[in-house]
Amino acid sequence: MLALFQMVGLLGLLQGVQLAHRQEWKQPGGSHEQPLPPMRDRYDFAIVIPAGGIECLWQFAHRNGSFFFSYQVQRTSGLGHDRHILATVNDPNGLHLDTSQDVRGQINFLTRETGFYQLCLSNRYNHFGTVQVYLNFGVFYDLETTELKRTELNGTLEAIEKSTTKLIIDVFHMWRYFNFARMRSRTDFNLLQSNCTYMNWWSAAQSVAIVLSGILQLHFLKSLFARQPNNKPKC
């Protein structure tokens, strides 16, 4: 935990240095200047999709950004237990970009336009049960490919800026892989817990069935030797 706090502090310090040397940029095709987009914009949370339902999210991104979107079904509830979902991504113009249809998946692409990208998750294969899906999505930018209007900087400061940028991007990717591993571990834990509950109930039902079977067999054997009113046994 201490190492994690140290990493967060280091990342904040590096971001401060990066922001200190960041300039303004011009949007392609426009004459007005806009602030430089953030180096990354990421989110991770879980949502519940009802039976046969669909949930859509929108993420804003500038052009020439690297968009990433990963998901994983954590648990199901209700009568249906199909863990497959349909994930789709559309660009700001509504054009379909990519589709993923599985229990877990990833969609990565380069943003060609600036605007809101639509992410939709459909529970169309499970009409009698809800699913809980963990999401991890966002966008990050490579400053070397962004059109920047730079002033003349000292060579040492420029080298520090490039090193800081590379380090921030590497830490960000490490966070992505760690988040995906956490997502997998949580799903496995839910599955083990569900299997444990299922086995406990099934064992209890089998034990009751065995006891009832023994009682019925004993009652049947006693009825074979029961005497009739004329004091003659059945066998």
From TrEMBL:
Domain GOLD as annotated: residue spans: 54-145
Protein localization: Endoplasmic reticulum membrane; Membrane
InterPro entries: Emp24-like, GOLD_dom
One Pfam family this sequence matches: EMP24_GP25L
Membrane topology annotation: Single-pass type I membrane protein
Residues annotated as signal peptide: 1-19
Keywords, ordered alphabetically: Endoplasmic reticulum, Membrane, Signal, Transmembrane, Transmembrane helix
One GO CC term, this protein: endoplasmic reticulum membrane
Top-rank lineage group of the source organism: Eukaryota
Coiled-coil stretches: none
Location (main, coarse): endoplasmic reticulum
Entry similarity comment: Belongs to the EMP24/GP25L family.
Protein's UniProt name: Transmembrane emp24 domain-containing protein 6
Lineage of source species: Eukaryota, Metazoa, Chordata, Craniata, Vertebrata
Recorded name of the encoding gene: TMED6
